[in-house]
Amino acid sequence: MTALNFSEESLQAAIRALPDSSLSSVRQAAASQFLADGLPSTKHEDWKYTNLAPAASVGNSWLQVVQRAKTPAGVPAAAAEYLQQLQSEVDACWFIVADGIVLARDCDSNFTAEDYVSIEKLSDTNQAGAILASDPITRLNAALLRDGLRVRFTRGCSDKPFAFLFVDAEESMPHMSQNRIVIEAGEQAQARILMAHWAAPGHERFRNTVVELALHEASGVDVVQISDPATDQVLINTIVATQARDSRFHFSSFDFGGALLRNDVKVSIDGSGANTQLAGLYLAGAGQHIDNHTRVDHRQGPAHSNETYRGILGRGSRCVFNGKAIVHPGADGTDANQSNHNLLLSEEAEIDTKPELEIYADDVKCSHGATVGQLDNAALFYLRSRGLSRSEAVGVLTRSFALGILSDLPLTDVADYLASRIEERLDEIIAQNQTPIT
Q1: Is residue 414 in a domain?
Q2: Is this structure's pTM higher than 0.70?
Q3: Which of 130, 184, 369, 421 is the most buried (most CB within 10 A)?
Q4: Which of helix, strand or coil describes residue 399?
């Protein structure tokens, strides 16, 4: 067993402890492939700046006790308290998910979700054997998947978003969990989705979530993802989307917590007229490592993609951005743009940014760029000359930089909550920067 792999005996014992279902054969095939390679190391180009040793450590600890772990009948108390906070600010049809299982559903009785969407357990569908398991992270997810959800939007657009809150079934011990949602937007269907990841502090946890999206012709899907686990947790999110002709996919992510947080967003544009918008904001404080990797494959043209990511890094943090757009042969008329802007609040903050373009077609319009800088001294001086303290001036400038990402938010329902959470997290990071090093 390598340092970034799991014991075959322990992994197989964990798989045997899962309920027998149509997922059983999928688990075994995925486990065999995963054990052959293990988790990716920093020798892999896509993981060059992100060490998964903390994830492997939590996983091995959990595997030693997994047979004693039990899924609770309801939502854990701490998660229920967080849900109440979200519900007070975001009106949505809520699903609380742990280990791939819906623990609870909270939706207005006057709202008929069945008019727009069908939701069923992945193990109950005839597509359980077709779930994605193409790399170590998605293979680990498939190998230990207790169950998942298949969500199909059929027509129209609901008057409120569908929200999935991912929590941990076990809050009293080290825990590794897997979640999987397969989402399909039928022809001309419109979907609005919120995904929130949260975990209470106190115990080591590694959560691995995979979301697959298939957008059919002329469909539209808006997704906002909020990652806000405690800053001692490991969280990996994988988003894989395919787009048909004239479809629209708008994805925005907001990263607040996690000791190690990785987002992998992969989009395949398979039809002309498709539009992809990716955006993200990451706010990192002391001890945090946040990594955003995106890949957009333009396989048909004309089509358009745009990526805008911003980061604010405090003392003792490290972030990574790697955005890649690939224009394949024949994808003429492609318009692809990337931008990544980073604000470092300390000389002890580090960012590795690498926007990339690969172009194998003619008649394209592509651009990319990245900036890394500190607060403008002239702007600080101006604000202080108007009576603001240094910390107040820093707060004004960082908020302006961060809140700019909300201007194109696809779900206005969550804008007020995000604005408030951004301000809270920035206050925490700025306060950390002012604390003397001991």
Answers
A1: no
A2: yes
A3: 184
A4: helix
